[in-house]
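Milestone M4 deliverable, item 7.
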Amino acid sequence: MSVLEAGQSFGRYTIINLDASSGPIETYRAYDASIGRDVALKVLATRDAASASRFNAAVLALLDLAHPSILDIHDAGDIDGIHYLAMPLIEGTTLAQRLQQGSLTPAEITRIVEQIGGALQYAHEHGIVSGAVALDKIIIDRSGKAVLTDFASGLLPAAGSASDGRQRDLLMLGGVMLALLAGHAIDAPDSPVGQLLKPWLDRLPPAIQSAASDNYTQFVSRAASPDATQRFTSIADFLAAWRQLVKPDAVAPATAASTPAPSTASRAEQIESRRRAAAAAQDQARQAQYDSEWRERQESRTREAADTQARIQRGADERASTMLRARQERDTRIGAGTTVAVPAAMAIDPARQAALRRLLTVVQAVADKRASTIGIRPLTSTPAPPKAAPTLARPAISRVTQATVQSAQATVASELKRQSASAFERGRQQAAADVVTVGQRLRPVIATLIVILFVVFCVFPLSCIIWVSTLPDPTSTPTRAAPTQAQPPTAAAARTAVATATPRPATATPAPRASATPALETVVVLTDTFRSGACGLPEGSGSAGSQTCANGEYQMAPAAAEPMLALFDSVRGSMLLDVNARIITGTSSLEYGLVWAATANHYYAITLKPDGALAVFTQQDGSAQYTVRGLTFSAVKVGAQTNRLRVRANGDTFGFAINERDLPLSLTGTAGSSGRFGFFVQSREPGAVVAFSNLVVSEMRTPGGTPAPGATVVPTR
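Output delivered:
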């Protein structure tokens, strides 16, 4: 029965299905809500402490590997006591599935051997073995790259020395090599190696088959030999021998199709040669067809571009011709006396037009009257028979009448010109007034826009710069200096306050999921530099030992072979514990560290040893259940150097950091949490002394909550 079921929620993962099971490792396909994609989730099916320790050791070892053919680790830890690690999900086919589709080409075989062999050589150089080199553990992704997907599973079982593990990897790689050259999977070779390699050797040119047959047979026999003394000594030797083997004839199988078969070739070779020639001819025909289609597409695009350019030019010519004809027709109408519409602003008042007509009538009547007095026919009267008159007087009278008419016409033209100029001036003044009116209406809008632009581009950036400059440095350690307005309580004051406080329940409310947890801020509730000289603690348990304060340090000297605890009391369940710890005297059996969530018979602890070995365990009813034991972490300082220990107790979820570097581990409590915490020292030999200093206890709470008396609010790291 599998540990997890399809559809089950496991932390931030949703289980889709069980992909594979290999020993104590079960591999699931799961959906990771934090990145929005599927991942490969490997779960330790057993809860045995030894297996859990080896699993965690494998995770820490794989974190240091970075190779294209080895999967990275996205996440690792344990949830409800189930240890897991998450890796990318590779889409592709396994090497076993690929061989079922047919034999691989020489280039594909060479690429796969180089990639998988290179990954194993890189891992061996870093002191790590796989133990999971098999056809179904190698995936060919969509780009053709070979990836060793089950690297972590081979690290889990406890086996012999590292040399034995490397030899197992070599033997498995030899089996993969035999399957690649044979063209199919081989469970247990029951035929001679030369017979298994015949499909590969038949693909070589006949001229080199005899010599190459012995070389390939010797190489594969040595690589897949059950006797470790007959195999290669390392992956590097294996790869060097393979490269030397394929160097002279690596391209021979690929070029054999273009080499004419000798006259003594067998019938099968002639058929294969003709098949390859036909395939090459088909490839050439397809290439020629592709080139022809490409040229046709290019010519079609060129013709379309030319047609488009011609249409554009024709349209431009037609528009120019139309405009020219319209201009000519307009000029013709104006030249022929066609009435042209006058703008309303320049039109003459109708009353003034009537007055001008009356003036023209009077002028014409005056001219007619003068003409009648001297016997000349009026200009506006009905024609009458001519009267006898001197012939010389008629031209003079005509000149007088013509002068009078011309004078009246000049007067009318002058008045029309004056009226037109006056109407044009009125139109210009009205347009200027309209512009001024529009400007006055837009003035408030323009002023508002100027203010908004000033605020956006000047005031707002300056305010942001001032605000950011007031924020504390997120990369620095929160200050433990006393604030200017309120001092954090001393150890004695904190103990007195706790002694009078109402006790909290032993069971804490489970912390909500990460997706619903609001941002937290850190409030310092206790600092203690141990310089007061009073080291007595109100709480304590364990065997007899001594405790003293000296030079700002809390020094603990436990009795031999018994743990010594120095417990503080606190009313805070979600808190950060930070303290410096160093060894004054002690042997290799010494362990020291922090305990938290402590009750009378149950507590959690993280401890260090002089050689830097790290352990995380749960102590309950006199027995210790180790989550991690004997691990090495690069941030730990060995010997008598000072280490800064941190425990992040957020409800029932615990995280750890050493010297400001987070451990890739997390722990979930099951027996509830309390606010009690303290120091832990244990040694099998007497005379051990460990000093603790610079204790800082901080409460994690949501922003806006009421801080503890005298607390200093600092940003969370």
